[in-house]
Amino acid sequence: MSIVGFGLFYYLIEVVEMDEFSARNLLLMLMVLFENIHVANCRSETKSAFRMSLFSNPLLLGGVVLAQILHIAMLYLPFGQTLLQTAPISLSHWLLLLGLALSLLAAMELHKLTWKRRQSKA
């Protein structure tokens, strides 16, 4: 997560020449998305996240949805923007962040697959 986050921040500041405020805003939401996606993966160390129902733990699902709604509200509501010094994110940036956050899901699924193969050979 840190490599992807640092890479994004560097890209936004050095390549795109985005101001630091906007880059930090995007990085904050990337970290939130990383954690919300990682929660689904952490439910099992060996089973694929795709083999487990999201609805098997309604309390966890509700917590993740509520946390995401709160973070989005802090981006778009004036009170949250002032409190956390955030700003709205464009659709293209949302898609970029979602794609980057899903890289964690792919990495963890690959880890689980290789772990399962190593265990079956042992």
Write the layout of secondary structure elements.
Blueprint: H1 2-15, H2 20-41, H3 58-76, H4 78-84, H5 91-121
Features:
flat, mainly alpha, 122 residues, 76% helix, single chain
Describe the structure.
Helix 1 packs antiparallel against helix 2 (20-41), helix 2 runs parallel beside helix 5 (91-121) and helix 3 (58-76) crosses helix 4 (78-84). The longest helix has 31 residues, at 91-121. The chain has helices at 2-15, 20-41, 58-76, 78-84, 91-121. By secondary structure, it is mostly helical. The chain is flat, with a radius of gyration of 17 Å. Helices cover 76% and strands 0% of the residues. The protein has one domain (2-117).
Quick structural summary:
With 122 residues, the protein is mainly α. Helix content is 76%, strand content 0%.
Task: Show unreliable segments.
Answer: none
Share of helical residues: over 70%
- For the termini, the CA-CA separation is 30 Å
Taken as a percent bin, the fraction of beta residues is: under 5%
* Gyration radius over CA: 17 Å
Gross morphology: flat
Task: Specify the number of helices.
Answer: 5
Domain module tally: 1
**Largest sheet data:** none
Which H/E pattern describes the elements?
A: HHHHH
- How many E-type strands? 0
Mean pLDDT: 92
Secondary structure category: mainly alpha
